[in-house]
UniProtKB/TrEMBL annotation:
Boundaries of every HTH merR-type domain copy: 1-70
Lineage of the organism: Bacteria, Bacillati, Actinomycetota, Actinomycetes, Pseudonocardiales
Species for this entry: Saccharopolyspora antimicrobica
Entry GO MF terms: DNA binding; DNA-binding transcription factor activity
Residue stretches spanning the membrane: none
CDD domains the record matches: HTH_MerR-like_sg5
Source organism, top-level taxon: Bacteria
Designated name of the protein: MerR HTH family regulatory protein
Matches recorded under SUPFAM superfamilies: Putative DNA-binding domain
Keywords, alphabetical: DNA-binding
């Protein structure tokens, strides 16, 4: 198919497709002349994935490119792959942030954290700092309650990694991390709305 047909089938504007091609998010089509190329269903599928990562997933173009590179050329272990997915999420945090409070939380929970997970540790530290700065610190009990809920969720997710193929496992880990996070936030807000209606509604 030509690029105009690719745009029609994928629902992505031709100008956006050209931008994704320049940014390396979409692989080149098969050249038929100096100015023309042919595309196929693999391009349609890739475009839908890119749109999901940037749209629902909320990733920057650079972060989406990193995720796609890991999908195309995954590291040796699934754990390293998960670390790559994690690094693409959440705000950038100053590497000099004091992680003492975050380390204390992790030690209390008995959670294993490796060097690949340091960005998430810094994000936890920054979140705890923001709570303190707003004079809204959480008690140890509250943090532990959140952590236990997340641990149960994570156990189910990690144990659900498909084993029939490495490709399926890679896709599950990366997309399950990047694209499910907005779902979790939406469900939390809806659960709060439901709980509020039950407690305080008429």
């Amino acid at each position: 198919m030509r690029i105009s047909e690719l745009g029609r089938d994928s629902g992505v504007a031709v100008a956006t497709i050209k931008y994704y091609l320049r940014e390396g998010l979409l692989h080149e089509g098969r050249r038929t002349s100096a100015t023309q190329a042919q595309y196929d269903e693999s391009h349609v599928a890739r475009l839908r994935l890119v749109r999901a990562l940037i749209g629902v997933g909320g990733l920057s173009v650079a972060a989406a490119r990193e995720v796609l590179e890991q999908l195309d050329n995954p590291p040796e272990t699934m754990h390293d792959l998960l670390g790559t997915a994690h690094r693409s999420l959440g705000p950038a945090v100053d590497e000099e942030v004091d992680t003492t409070a975050a380390e204390a939380v992790l030690e209390r929970l008995g959670w294993r954290v490796e060097s690949a997970d340091r960005q998430a540790v810094r994000q936890l530290a920054a979140a705890l700092d923001a709570l303190e700065a707003a004079d809204f610190p959480l008690s140890e009990e509250a943090v532990t309650t959140y952590a236990r809920a997340m641990r149960e969720l994570a156990e189910g997710e990690v144990s659900g990694v498909p084993v029939e193929s490495r490709e399926a496992a890679v896709r599950y880990l990366v997309l399950g991390t990047v694209l499910v996070e907005p779902l979790l936030l939406a469900l939390r807000r809806l659960a709060q709305a439901d709980a509020s209606a039950r407690h305080y509604g008429s």
